[in-house]
Design a protein that fits this description.
With 148 residues, this protein is an alpha+beta fold. The chain has a single domain (5-120), classed as Transcriptional regulator MraZ domain (Chemotaxis protein chec). The chain is built from six helices and eight strands. The protein has helices spanning 20-29, 49-60, 67-76, 95-101, 121-133, 135-146; strands at residues 5-9, 15-17, 34-39, 44-48, 81-84, 90-92, 106-111, 116-120. It has a six-stranded antiparallel beta sheet. Strands 2-6 form a two-stranded antiparallel ribbon.
C-alpha cells in the first residue's frame, strides 16, 4: 500500500523521482514499474497498472453510459497516460497533465493506499488548511460512511 508524504522537485524535462518506498510497493506488490497518471480536480493521481486495469474494466462494462459518466471519463480516463519508471526510478509527467494540475517545480506525493496523488505544494498547503478547519466534520462523515 502507498502511504506517507514526500516532497520532490521536477527536473527541467518534467521528470519526477518516485520515492523508494513507493517503488518497493510497485515492484513488490504489483511486480511492475508501470503507472497510469491522470487528472483529479486539484492534483494528479498515479495508479499501478493492476489498479488502473480494474478502473477501466468497471467503466468498460457500461455499453452506453449516462452523460455524467461520459463527462467524467473524458476528464479522468481519456487524460490518462502510461508512465514507466526509467532506470533512475523517475517518471515523465506530460506537459498537459502538469499544466492541468498547476504542477511546476515543487511537488508533494501523498500515498493513498492503492494509488498516490501528485500535488503542487502550494495547492496542497491550501487543501490542508481546509481539512484542518473542517476536520471534525470530515471525521464524522468518514465514520458514518465507512463503518461496516
Amino acid at each position: 500500500m502507498f502511504r506517507g508524504k514526500s516532497i520532490h522537485s521536477l527536473d527541467a524535462k518534467g521528470r519526477l523521482s518516485i520515492p523508494a518506498r513507493f517503488k518497493e510497493v510497485l515492484k513488490g506488490q504489483y511486480q511492475s514499474d508501470k503507472l497510469f497518471v491522470t487528472n483529479k480536480v486539484k492534483c494528479l493521481v498515479a495508479y499501478p497498472y493492476e489498479e488502473w486495469k480494474k478502473i477501466e474494466e468497471k467503466f468498460g462494462d457500461t455499453p452506453l453510459p449516462p452523460p455524467e459518466i461520459q463527462r467524467f471519463q473524458r476528464y479522468f480516463i481519456a487524460s490518462a497516460v502510461e508512465c514507466n519508471l526509467d532506470s533512475h526510478g523517475r517518471i515523465l509527467i506530460p506537459g498537459h497533465l502538469r499544466e492541468e494540475a498547476g504542477i511546476e517545480k515543487e511537488v508533494v506525493l501523498l500515498g493513498m493506499l492503492k494509488y498516490f496523488e501528485i500535488w503542487n505544494k502550494a495547492a496542497l498547503d491550501e487543501e490542508f488548511k481546509v481539512v484542518r478547519k473542517r476536520f471534525d466534520e470530515f471525521n464524522t462523515f468518514v465514520s458514518e460512511n465507512t463503518s461496516r
